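Q: A reviewer asked whether we had any structural model of the full assembly, not just the individual parts. We don't, so I'm hoping you can provide one. Inputs are below.
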Amino acid sequence: MKANYIQFKSPQFRVLSDKQIDELHFASLQILERTGVSIHAAEALDLLGQAGADISDPKRVRIPSLLVDQALRTAPKNITLYTVDGQPYTHLNGTRSYFGAVVDQPDILDPHTGRRRPHTVEDTAALVRLIDALPNMAWVMSSSLVHGLPPEVAEKVIQLQCVMNSNKPFASSTLNTENLKGILEMCYIVSGGQANLRAKPFYVNSVEPTTPLVHNRESLEMSLICAEAGVPNIVFSMLMAGATCPATPAAALAVANAELLSHLVVTQLKRPGAPVIYGAEPNVMDMRTSIFPYGSPELCLWCAAMTELTHSYGLPMFGTAGTTDSKLVDAQAGVEVTQQVIMSVLSGADLVHDVGLVDHCSMISPELMVLTDEIVGMVRVMTGGIEINDETLALDLIDRVGPGGNFLAEEHTLKHFRKHWVPTIMDRSQLSIEETGTPVKHCQDLLREKTLKLMAGHQPPSRPEEMVKEIKKLEKSWFDRAGLPYKYPSLG
Amino acid sequence: MPEVFGKIMNLVIAGNGGELNDAVRRALDDGLEAGEILAQGLIAGMNEVGRRMKSGEMFIPEVLLSARTMQGGLDILKPHLSEDAASRAGTIVIGTVEGDLHDIGKNLVAMMLEGAGFKVIDLGVDVKAEAFVEAIKTHKPNLVGMSALLTTTVANMKKTIEAIQEAGLRDKVKIMAGGAPVTQRLVVEELGADGYGASASEAVDRARALIG
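A: Here is a predicted structure for the entire assembly that you could use as a starting point for your response.
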C-alpha cells in the first residue's frame, strides 16, 4: 500500500477556478438585489414579500442575498431517482452523468423509411421501449407533442406511455398546473399514493423561466405544487447570447444563475428541502438564421461552466447532450453530439437531457438515440482513469515474453482484453467492397439495423392488471373531458 | 435616378445613422420628393439588407442597426409624407398570443417589416384574442401577425383566428403566424392562417406576397 497516494479515476477537468465561480455567484446576487426579477404568480410574490424581498414592483422584485443563502442551505444536495417499480436508480450527486432521451416532437425521423413524418402516440411508446433497451440511456423526457391530440391530453397520454413501456424514471416539460395534477394522479396510482412517490420518486417535473429574468405564472405555480408534494423539479434557463442575454458568456451565466437562484428561493420558502434540479443552456444565437444552435461549441463549454457553478452549490446539474441541428443523422450529428457528450461527462453534469433531437429540436430520431448511446459508452471509456499497480504494469510478464515476443496467447491478455471497448455500430472491418466483392456495412447501415432490431424486439416490463385497469380508466377520463373519442389517433 | 438615392441606400446598409440623417435632410432641401426618398433610398436600402440577411452576408445585429438607421431617416421624412406614403407597403397588427411572454422573434419581424416600409402596430405579449380583434377594428390593417414559442399557446393562435372570424373580419385581413413550435403544415392546415415564415428574414417576403 503506497502512502499518500492519489489516483485519478478520470481526467481532471476545470473550466472555472474557485474564484471565478465566486465572482459569478456575486454577480448573480447583484442582479437580484439591483435589477430584480419579474414574478407573475401571486403566491410566489407573497412568499417573497413575507420573507423580506422588495415586492413593491412585481416586475422587478429585488431579492436580498440572505434569502439566497438560506435557500442554498435547505435545498437537498443528494437526490435519488427511482425506477417505476421502486428501485434506486440515478444518484444525482455529481458522481455520474445520466443521459436521458426525448420521446416526442411534432415530427419523427422514421428509421424504416429515413423520412420525416408526423409523430404519433404509438411512436412514443416505441421510443420509450427503445430507451428501456439502451444501456446508456437512464431516463425519459417528454413534452406534449403528438399528432392528432391537443397538448393537454397528449402530455398525460405520453407520460402514461412512459409508465407502461419502461421502468426508467421519466420527466416532463409540463404545460400547466392542470396537467401536472393529472400526471401526478397517474403516478400515485403506480406508486400507491403520494407518500410513496415522495419517498421513491420516478417522475420529475420541469419548468423554465422566460429569459431574461422573468418568472412566468405557470412555471412558478407548478414549482410550488412540486415543492409541496415533494416531487423533484427541474428548473432550467435557456439563454441566447446577444438576444435574451448579453453576448458574453460571463453575463449569460450570471443571468441564468440569477433566474435559477430566485426560483430556488421561492421553492425553498414554500417548503424548505423541496428537491430541485438546477440547470441552464446558455448558448449563442445564430445571428444568420436566428436559431438556438444545439450544435454550437459554445453550448458545450458554457454548460460545463454552469455545471461547475451548480456543483459549487451542491446541487445536481441538468445538462444537455445528444442533439443536433442537422436534419439527418449524419457527420454533423456525430460531431455535435460527441462534443456535447464529452463535455457533459468531463464536467460531471448529472441529469443530461435532449438525446435524440434533430433539426434543432423539431424532430425526434431513434437512430440518433442509438448513436448517442454508443457515443456515451465510448466517452465513458475515454474519460476513465488508468490504474497503475503490479498487475497492470505486468513487469514479470514483460520480462518473460522478452524483446520481440508477443502477448496474444498470454493468460494476462485473456484476463484483461475484455475490458477494451467494442463498438456495436462503428465499422472496423478490414477489407473494402473493391477487394472482397461483399458490401461493407457502414456505420449508418449498422446503426439503422441495430435501431430497427431494438425497436422490434424489446419487451417492456409488465404491470399488475389492477394497476393497468385503473390507469386506463384515468386515461379515458382525460379523453372524455376533452370531448374526444377514446383512441390514439393514427396517421390518416 | 438621382445619385443621392444610391448614397442613402448605402448609408442604410452600413448602419451609419448620423450621415444618413444629413443625407436625407439635404435631399429634402434639394427639393426631392419625400415619398421617393423613402422608396428609392430607405426602403431600397432595407431591401438590400434583407437580401443580404437571407444569403447570410449580414448578421441580425447588423440588420437591426440598419433598421434603426432607416427609422431615423423615416422620422425626418414623416412630416413631409402623405398618409398613404407612410404606410405604402401595408399595415400589420402583430403580437405574441395569450399566455406567452416570448417576444424576440416577434420584435425582429416587426423591425424587419418597419424597415420594409410597413406600418407596424405591436400589441406586445400575452395578447388576448379580443385585443387582436379590437386592434383590427381600430387600425384596419392588411395583415395580422401572431407569434408563439410555447406549444400550449399555439392553441391560442387558433382561438384568435376564430375570434377574428366571429367578428366578421376574417376576409379583411391576411393572417401570418410564426414561432418555434409552429410549422408551415400547422399554420395552413390546422390553424387556418394564410402564411408562415420560418425566420424573420422570410417575414417581409411573405408579408408582401400575402398583400399581393
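A: Points you may want to mention in the reply: The radius of gyration of chain A is 24 Å. Chain A touches chain B through 25 residues (CB under 8 Å).
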